[in-house]
Structure formats: structure tokens, C-alpha cells
Design a protein that fits this description.
The protein has three helices and eight strands. The protein is an alpha+beta fold and 126 residues long. The chain has a five-stranded antiparallel β-sheet. The chain has a three-stranded antiparallel β-sheet with strand order 6-7-8.
């Protein structure tokens, strides 16, 4: 279900040890990766200070965009849990200065969406 879920646009949690070395150069001193999710070639990296979105572009994947969103820029967020017949759960994040449309990400049904909600709440509501 993992590969099929990814092809359907759903992300799955990955072990942070798989990416820790590759993304260490993006982290500030003392910053640490808390959770990471893969969507085909793209990544969502939750650190203790910000959310980093890695968007691998093009057929070769040589061009990559890294979007860094400090938690203080997130004005609010919502989660939608997967139902009995749904294949995905959804996370919506509204970012200050980025218009009225939220950033939407879908995650496969096996992901505990409440973990993401708790993580965002922990850093945003401080």
C-alpha cells in the first residue's frame, strides 16, 4: 500500500536517520529534525524550529526547491482524519503573508495524523 499510496498523492512517515546526514547542512546550530515524511521524491521535514518542504523538480530531479516555514509564520492549521473508505488524511496549514489559500498535504491512512497535530501545536502555540 505504501507505493500505491504515494502514487495517489499521499505521504508516508520515514525514519529521520535516513535523511539526517543529507539535510544537516540546512539546519541551524542546535536545530534538530523531529519528523519526516516522503511523497514520491518530495519531503516534509519537521524540525523543532520550522517546517522544511523539499520539492524535487523536473524529470532528472536535479532541480530542487527548499521552502523553510518558521513555526511562528503559521497562523493556524487543521487536520482531517481518514474515514473508513478514505485513503488519506489531510493537513492544512495557513501561512502568514502567503495569501488566503492554505498549504495542503495528504498523508496515507496508516499515518497517525494526530502526531502531526501535536507537533504543530507544540511549536505554534508556545
Amino acid at each position: 500500500m505504501g507505493f500505491f499510496s504515494e502514487m495517489m498523492g499521499n505521504a508516508s512517515e520515514i525514519d529521520i536517520n535516513e535523511i539526517r546526514e543529507d539535510y544537516a547542512k540546512f539546519l541551524a546550530p542546535g536545530e534538530r529534525i523531529e519528523h519526516a515524511y516522503r511523497l514520491i521524491r518530495d519531503l516534509f521535514i519537521f524540525t523543532d524550529k520550522r517546517l522544511i518542504l523539499v520539492d524535487v523538480q523536473g524529470l532528472t530531479g536535479k532541480k530542487t526547491e527548499y521552502l523553510s516555514i518558521p513555526y511562528k509564520s503559521i497562523t493556524h492549521f487543521s487536520i482531517e482524519t481518514a474515514g473508513h473508505f478514505d485513503l488519506d488524511a489531510e493537513l492544512k496549514i495557513w501561512i502568514s503573508g502567503m495569501g488566503t489559500e492554505p498549504l495542503c498535504k495528504r498523508f496515507n491512512k496508516s499515518l497517525n495524523i494526530y502526531t502531526l497535530q501535536q507537533l504543530l501545536a507544540q511549536y505554534i502555540l508556545i
